[in-house]
């Protein structure tokens, strides 16, 4: 693989889209659509007040000065973390992520550069770096070398320029600090201190980028590599050789005991690193996964798993680059291809996210034949039209149940349960329409023709009935009569704890876990939606319900302690004062939407980042179901498409799922559960 090249990623942040070009700072490309720079550079460019807190909305102009193609591009602010003063009176953050305008086509050689995240202070001492900026007298740029000196109080890292060269000047702000040893970015230039005798500069270390914008872990190539790492056992062997001869029996026993402990620790360390490498690969972060496997290979040079994984990832990365190349070349033919261009572009974008299987590679070959003028525009258009008119390999056949079951067993999937789930799995359970009818008949409204939130709103507003009656009657309608639900039994049989988000109202899941002695904790909100920082935790092995804040919950090791977490997103039946907490009526949904950022626990949001996501029992035909789907999907930063299962999809639902990047597999849910169960021990 070619080494990354800083020249291909450096950008100038320009005052405006005009000649002569006037740069006020720098930035660097970290994904095909995103650029990192300093927030104060954007404030200067847009001539805004220094204390601007809200993200600016104007266009920011930029170019790639070290490439032949110096066309001016435009971008907008994607993530904004302006300069703020810390409690110690020092300045921190000052980070801005820009997103290129949708129509932007990058210059041919422009490519994102990897980022190394160093979190140990010792890693910043005496590291050789280089940087490229735009001081006032050099609008085309200037290279500088330097050495990192170590961190200061606010987490920034001090940097000194090489002896005999001028120091860092204004115009370097926002540029990448390039690590010479690791061939990657380790930080961003942020500040300059000019004293009477000398000048010091400071960089923001890369780990702060992730703190400000966690989604960068998915968008960029992030390396978390320890420098000069050795296996604990190799260090131990060197120490053991230095022990004096004629050791006593007790000392020999202690040495053997220590050796055993070190090997156990080493095994856990390697296992953890392999799990991380596989997680990155599942999330299609192939470059990061490759880096992780290369680290593992340096520890285990004879391990065939590492060599096979590296070879497979190199092939996937090569295919992904091939897709990107085809996508760039194809845009020149959009007029000739018309609507077919949009269809092909959608498929290419999916290949970039999901990888290239055998069928996708065949399509790629055909597109490349068109680009090489081996087939005509008419031939390609006719072929692409035939894909929609003829059924190809169905999504049903594409499901790999063995892989899905393995991910479930590892606890690598978050399950989002919806109100259509039990009617699909349990014939004796009432459908949503039957529940609405049951509520309407109970309050003597036989001609009611609305949806579930509407009948709940009617009962809630009517003084004859009220909230508690609504809750009591709803509980009698939603509780399944059938004692066993196959999907819940499957969840209960898994050894690893699960995170389940539930938009249902019944308690059958908890009952199933109790019967199988699977540890769990039910998490739900305070009854007063305005008291957004109070959460309830009901443990399966404790008698009292625990109250805690959002912040306290974030620090609890629930999954690590073996508890499956059941987050009752719409409230919980049967809890004290639970009727007020339920999201059932129209006004409840509106209130939940208003307070969603505070109500949905950070603990749950954090768990969504690196896991797959299944929506089971969510048919988006009604506005209330689409609302809760939208809310929870907005919390995900993982680019991996969500998975859902139901057979019938009308045109609106099909388009909705495609728009939300939800892959629907038209399978009977019972069959899906049976096939999954067959793969589990």
Rg over CA atoms, rounded to whole Å, is 29 Å
Give the terminus-to-terminus CA distance: 41 Å
Number of strands: 23
Number of helices: 27
Overall pLDDT: 81
The major sheet is characterized as:
9 strands, mixed
Widest sheet, order of strands: 19-18-17-20-16-15-21-22-23
Q: Please tell me the CATH architecture of the largest domain by its name.
A: Beta Barrel
Structural class: alpha/beta
Summarize this structure briefly.
The protein is α/β, with parallel strands linked by helices and 681 residues long.
Question: What report would you give on this structure?
Answer:
With 681 residues, the protein is an alpha/beta fold. The strands form four sheets. It has a nine-stranded mixed sheet with strand order 19-18-17-20-16-15-21-22-23, sandwiched between helices. A six-stranded antiparallel β-barrel has the order 1-2-3-6-5-4. Strand 22 (642-645), helix 26 (651-659) and strand 23 form a beta-alpha-beta unit. Helix 4 (232-241) packs antiparallel against helix 5. The chain is globular and about 85 Å long. Residues 225-231 and 390-394 have low confidence and may be disordered.
Descriptors for this entry?
681 residues; alpha/beta; Thrombin, subunit H; nine-stranded mixed beta sheet; globular
In terms of topology, how is this protein built?
Layout: E1 10-14, E2 23-29, E3 34-37, H1 39-45, E4 60-63, E5 73-85, E6 91-100, E7 115-116, E8 128-133, E9 142-151, E10 157-161, E11 176-179, E12 184-194, E13 199-205, H2 206-212, H3 216-219, E14 222-223, H4 232-241, H5 249-282, H6 286-299, H7 304-330, H8 334-337, H9 339-354, H10 358-371, H11 377-389, H12 395-398, H13 401-409, E15 413-417, H14 421-425, H15 432-442, H16 452-461, H17 467-478, H18 486-493, E16 499-502, H19 508-515, E17 520-525, E18 534-539, E19 546-549, H20 550-554, E20 564-568, H21 578-581, H22 586-594, H23 596-599, H24 602-608, E21 612-616, H25 623-633, E22 642-645, H26 651-659, E23 662-665, H27 669-678
Parallel strand pairs: 7-14, 15-16, 15-21, 16-20, 17-20, 21-22, 22-23
Antiparallel strand pairs: 1-2, 1-4, 2-3, 3-6, 4-5, 5-6, 8-9, 8-11, 9-10, 10-13, 11-12, 12-13, 17-18, 18-19
Helix pairs in contact: 4-5, 5-6, 6-7, 7-9, 7-10, 15-17, 18-19
